[in-house]
């Protein structure tokens, strides 16, 4: 059964890819809408594969970076990943903070925010961060990235799971970061179990439901998903181009481009 599902998914992906590539050039010349692909670090297992797909389709995305553990035994913002991030910066992608320790913002408490890091210091514990410490969680990502890429982050961030608190949003805004969630249709579902949410089904839903202006969200690798979603980005991009959508980074989003007021956050799924 599992092999059959994968074969079906591959056949659908190839069919959509073929159709998409045929119409992609003309669609890109006359955009009927724009979408914004964003990629959280996740476990980085498919980071190179995703980068290759973006290059093939000449798509610029927005990466949200956290220092997450990878299958190589290192972390996504260790020096061992310097060449990867430098190359993505040279390709013209945009970059935001996903917090250094990939922690969950739990609740506001007094003048601070309760925060549960997944990695690094205090992993698995709930600590209270003052506003300056919230900024440090975001800025520490920027310091590492700048050392590798020779440029800072764009003025955007995403809380892990999309879960924020008023205190966390205010603290981040105070140090220049606007929070970005994703559109309901833009939740690509790559962190859902593949046993119940096949790549074929996720692809069909995305191609059916995504609309002009939607922010899309996926990862560079998910530990728990048995049938990786990353290859599905290829037919997804081709299919959306065939519908007339052009891809932009959040630097070009009307709510986030330079000089725009810091907006209220976009909606975020509660699926994570």
Offer a concise description of the structure.
This protein is α/β, with parallel strands linked by helices. The protein is 35% helix and 15% strand. The protein has a single domain, classed as Alpha-Beta Barrel (TIM Barrel).
Characteristic key phrases:
272 residues, alpha/beta, TIM Barrel, five-stranded parallel β-sheet, three-stranded antiparallel β-sheet, 7 helices, globular, disordered N terminus
Classified in CATH, the superfamily is Glycoside hydrolase/deacetylase
Tell me the major beta sheet.
5 strands, parallel
- Overall geometry: globular
Structural class comes to: alpha/beta
The top level CATH class name = Alpha Beta
Mean pLDDT: 89
Strand coverage percent: 15-25%
Binned, the helix content reads 25-40%
How does CATH name the architecture? Alpha-Beta Barrel
Question: What can you see in these coordinates?
Answer:
The chain is of the alpha/beta class and 272 residues long. It has a single domain, classed as TIM Barrel. Helices cover 35% and strands 15% of the residues. It is built from seven helices and ten strands. It has helices spanning 2-29, 47-56, 82-90, 131-149, 166-174, 199-209, 233-242; strands at 33-40, 62-65, 94-97, 104-109, 112-116, 127-129, 156-157, 178-179, 215-219, 245-247. The strands form three sheets. Strands 1, 2, 3, 9 and 10 form a five-stranded parallel beta sheet that branches. The chain has a three-stranded antiparallel beta sheet with strand order 4-5-6. The chain has a two-stranded parallel ribbon with strand order 7-8. α1 (2-29) runs parallel beside α7 (233-242). The radius of gyration is 18 Å and the shape is globular. The chain starts with a helix and ends in a 25-residue tail after the last strand. The relative contact order is 0.22. Residues 1-9 and 17-28 have low confidence and may be disordered.
């Amino acid at each position: 059964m599992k092999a059959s599902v994968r074969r079906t998914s591959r056949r659908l992906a190839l069919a959509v890819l073929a159709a998409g590539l045929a119409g992609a050039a003309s669609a890109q010349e006359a955009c009927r809408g724009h979408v914004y692909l964003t990629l959280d670090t996740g476990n980085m297992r498919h980071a190179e594969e995703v980068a290759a797909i973006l290059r093939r389709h000449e798509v610029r995305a927005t990466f949200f970076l956290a220092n997450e553990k990878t299958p190589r035994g290192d972390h996504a913002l260790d020096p061992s990943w310097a060449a990867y991030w430098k190359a993505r910066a040279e390709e013209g992608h945009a970059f935001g903070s996903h917090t250094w320790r990939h922690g969950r913002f739990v609740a506001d408490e007094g003048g601070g925010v309760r925060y549960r890091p997944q990695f690094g210091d205090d992993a698995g514990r709930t600590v209270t961060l003052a506003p300056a410490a919230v900024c440090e969680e975001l800025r520490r990502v920027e310091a590492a990235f700048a050392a590798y890429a020779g440029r800072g982050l764009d003025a955007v961030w995403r809380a892990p799971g999309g879960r924020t608190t008023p205190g966390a949003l205010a603290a981040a805004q105070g140090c220049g970061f606007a929070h970005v969630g994703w559109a309901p249709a833009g939740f690509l579902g790559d962190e859902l179990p593949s046993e119940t949410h096949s790549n074929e089904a996720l692809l069909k839903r995305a191609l059916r439901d995504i609309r002009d202006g939607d922010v899309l969200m996926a990862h560079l690798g998910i530990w728990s998903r048995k049938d990786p979603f990353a290859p599905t980005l290829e037919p997804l991009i081709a299919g959306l181009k065939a519908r007339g959508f052009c891809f932009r980074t959040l630097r070009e989003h009307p709510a986030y481009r330079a000089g725009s007021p810091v907006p209220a956050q976009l909606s975020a799924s509660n699926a994570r």
